[in-house]
Amino acid sequence: MNNSVATVSQKKGIVLKDTSSKVSKDGYSFDINSDRWKLNKDTTISFQKEVLALEPAVHDGFRKSLARYAEESSAKHTLNMYHRFQRMVRDTGCTSVDEYIIRNWRAMLDNEHEWYLGALRGFLISWHDYGYKGISSEVVNVLESMTLSGNQKGVAIANRCPYTGALTQNEQIAVANELIRMFAEDKISLACYSYLVTLQATARRATQLRQLKAMDLLKEKCPKTNSTNFYLNIPRAKQRGVGFREMFKKLAITEELYLTLLNLAESEGKKLTDVLNLNLSKSQMVQIPLFIDWVTVEKLLDGEVITDSIEMALSSDLLHISTSQLRDGYMKQVNVLNRAVSERTGEIIQLSARRFRRTRGTNLGRKGVGALIIAEALDQSDTQNVKVYTENTADTVTYIDKAVGKQLAPFAKAFKGEIIVNLDDGERGDDPSARIPNNDNEAVGACGTNDFCVKGYEACYLCEKFRPLLDGPHEKFLESLYAEKETRLKATKSEQYASTKDTLILAVEWVVQACAEMKQKQGDTTNG
């Protein structure tokens, strides 16, 4: 293998046509077949003899999985995964990975180092989810059944990995806002956005969502209440003896998701008829997939794929996108472009279909919902595997009070705007309408956009266009948020309800800290 030197890509996140050439999260190009990967200025992975001695299929799967991590995660986290994996291979002397190797390595690790396997677990599960050879479903089952010690608190963290486990409430909000940002800035397509928000809203498997057609969007009028309800008729999967779109389960969805998918169905349908130069009937239009395999469409045009009729193509799964395309296309694209930060790790939040399912199960588990209802919500036929998704997050759901908020704010990075010294320092200058007042008519900052907005000043702290005033009454607002939270807690005894504004608290906390640092620097400059 050659030892190529990585160079910074001019287009960060764009993978070159040569499939052996990849681009790290920090924009450094590296050759997947090289034994030396430079992921950023300070981080280089050098493949050692133990890893190079793996069986070819396992070695190939490891490189491809690690390359995915390098593209989607921080360089430091990727390097850590390499070191943990190399340590396992070195300790066990293995050339392949099975459930016995996992159990043996755990037995070798003392209490102080058990977290090594805890840290590696997420990577190995992702390896399996990517579809690369080397990690079997048996290995995943063993990993998910283990209770392992964490490297910081030393408490059991069964299935609570901050990189692959259920998302916290703040992380869920951050992910939702980030998806909106990427779509609004035209970073991702409508199809990509629709897939991610449908995953988040339904917690269904990718193999189910790939089967969706336009006809599965339902709008019904309730005769009793005269209200309009919206549903998604989702094909079932993992049912014995059930084939493509042979069994369905109707799921209630929001009007927002319904309209998003309706727009997708209309735009994809028009694009397909234009590309194939066809006039389809209404009955044919509703059979068009929501998520179209455009590679196959191109092959149809080139004559590489032949079908007897358009009816056969529409009734089969021929035009439906594959699960690997959803994973390696849409999901990978979002992970590469994603800027949402976890308050637990201070790093970019990594997403997968599995995480959304675990999040739904965990959210229901926190509310005390029974196993049968959770199984129904996750579209499982029985409760056998519900335990995997109902993670006991009591140790990881941190109640954010004043002391904790100060510590988490720098990690969460909930505030994305810029601080200004004077109101006219913003983009709109001395425009009086740019001034943002609080409830006491005190200026808290300026708006950096002319877009119409009626959300109120609280939401401004979560907007990247907000320009908080250096001397603004931010601490006063922060105190009121903490007081409101305590009032809610005393009234309802529910930490979940009391914590509904935690993301806002972390954003204001960050502004307060950043303003204090700016003032200190100004004071140091003046004194100097």
Overall description:
The chain is mainly α and 528 residues long. It contains 22 helices and eleven strands. The protein has helices at 49-52, 56-72, 75-92, 99-108, 115-130, 137-145, 169-184, 190-202, 206-209, 255-276, 282-285, 294-302, 310-315, 323-337, 353-366, 371-377, 386-389, 402-412, 457-460, 474-492, 495-498, 502-527; strands spanning 7-8, 21-23, 28-31, 36-38, 44-46, 217-221, 228-235, 248-253, 435-437, 443-447, 466-468. A three-stranded antiparallel β-sheet has the order 1-3-2, with helices on one face. It is globular. The N and C termini lie far apart (56 Å). The model is unreliable at 1-18, 150-159 and 389-397 (pLDDT under 50).
Walk me through the topology.
Blueprint: E1 7-8, E2 21-23, E3 28-31, E4 36-38, E5 44-46, H1 49-52, H2 56-72, H3 75-92, H4 99-108, H5 115-130, H6 137-145, H7 169-184, H8 190-202, H9 206-209, E6 217-221, E7 228-235, E8 248-253, H10 255-276, H11 282-285, H12 294-302, H13 310-315, H14 323-337, H15 353-366, H16 371-377, H17 386-389, H18 402-412, E9 435-437, E10 443-447, H19 457-460, E11 466-468, H20 474-492, H21 495-498, H22 502-527
Antiparallel strand pairs: 1-3, 2-3, 4-5, 6-7, 7-8, 9-10, 10-11
Helix pairs in contact: 2-5, 3-5, 5-6, 7-8, 8-10, 8-14, 15-16, 18-22, 20-22
Number of helices: 22
Mean pLDDT across the residues is: 82
Query: What structural class do you assign from the helix and strand content?
Result: mainly alpha
User: How can the largest sheet be summarized?
Assistant: 3 strands, antiparallel
